Amino acid sequence: MSSLLSIDDIQVSYGNIKALKGVSIDAQEGQIVCLIGANGAGKSTLLRSIVGLEPLVSGQISYSDSVIAQGHGEHHRGHANCLPTEQICSLGIALVPEGRRVFADMTVEENLDMGAFLVKDKSEILKRKSEMYDFFPILGQRRKQKTRSLSGGEQQMMAIARALMSSPHLLLLDEPGLGLAPLVVQDIFSKISIINKENKVTVFLVEQNARMALRAADDGYVMENGLIVLSDKASALLANPKVKSAYLGQ
Ligand SMILES: Nc1ncnc2c1ncn2[C@@H]1O[C@H](COP(=O)(O)OP(=O)(O)O)[C@@H](O)[C@H]1O
Ligand SMILES: [Mg+2]
Fold first, then answer.
1. Number of H helices, E strands in the chain
2. 41 C-alpha to ligand 2 centroid (Å)
3. Could you read off the pLDDT of 68-103 as tens digits, one per residue?
4. Alpha helices in 14-53 (DSSP H)
5. pLDDT confidence of residue 76
6. What is the pLDDT of residue 65?
7. Are 59 and 73 in contact (CB under 8 A)?
8. Is the distance from the beta carbon of residue 43 to the nearest atom of ligand 1 less than 6 Å?
9. Is the Cβ–Cβ distance between 35 and 223 less than 8 Å?
10. Kind of pairing, strands 170-174 and 202-207?
11. Contacts of 211 (CB under 8 A, 6+ apart)
12. pLDDT given for residue 43 in this prediction
């Protein structure tokens, strides 16, 4: 199997705070890979660095055998040696950010249109929207409603649908279950599995909800304080005593 995404020994800092201290992660084509870790471990920083939103101090990130970001030393934060975010997205990567970041005053439909900003063909945009309404029927019913009137789970589904409007090969999800009721989380994870299995989208999933994430994933990584402390098949991590006591409450 070939790596679709290869993160090689990256460091990311916010001023004096070293958020990522040399992190390496590989995602094979077609897999669901998850990264679990407590609040503040560095998970969002990692996802943001993949799409060019945080510059690397050192290391590099490759996607589909092209380098998309490279380290540039401590003192050049303003001159990141990485592709601009829009260009990274146009290569087939989409991020569903933490906290959903929906445009609350826009309708569901307008949000989905925003997700297709790189698609120029109007009929293609209509086709993709109708696929999203088939896949998430609740969004079809609510398409003319302002996003702020949606429940948290519906907003999360809309954020995922918005990312899928760009037809990504690699979908990055930042805590899709955050703040949602267990049944809603299950619903969202089952959609993520379908997106992976049926639409052949490679998924890189970041979660504090370790149990749900490890059950859904093929491979898993555990991050603590900006370092990967464990990596294995997700099924092996579920059975790992350290993971059980620290992340699964067992
Ligand atoms: N914009 C920022 N400025 C300064 N520090 C930040 C910023 N974003 C995150 N951090 C710090 O970097 C570390 C990792 O944060 P983050 O990547 O958000 O972790 P996680 O997503 O795992 O909760 C934390 O110590 C956090 O306080
Ligand atoms: Mg986070």
1. 10, 11
2. 8
3. 999 987 655 555 577 899 999 999 999 999 987 778
4. 43-50
5. 57
6. 87
7. no
8. yes
9. yes
10. parallel
11. 238, 247, 248
12. 97
Query: Is there an atom of ligand 1 within 6 Å of 14 CB?
Result: yes
Q: Is the CB of 59 under 6 A from ligand 1?
A: no
Ligand 1 nearest-atom number relative to CA 41: 22
The reported pTM is 0.95
Domains in the chain, CATH or no CATH each:
1-90+169-183+196-250 (3.40.50.300), 93-167 (no CATH)
Q: What is the pLDDT of residue 78?
A: 53
98-123 pLDDT, tens digit per residue, is: 987 778 889 999 999 999 988 999 99
- The predicted pLDDT at position 75 comes to 59
Instruction: Decide if 11 contacts 24 (C-beta within 8 A).
Output: no
Q: Which ligand 1 atom minimizes the distance to the CA of 208?
A: 22
The structure tokens listed for 162 are 């918005």
| Angle at the Cα of 171 from the Cα atoms of 14 and 134, rounded to 5 degrees | 140
Answer yes or no: is the C-beta of 40 below 6 A from any ligand 1 atom. Answer: yes
Query: Which residue numbers in the chain have pLDDT < 70?
Result: 1, 74-80
Tell me which of 10, 20, 44, 205 to substitute to probe ligand 1's pocket, judged by most ligand atoms within 8 Å of the beta carbon.
Answer: 44
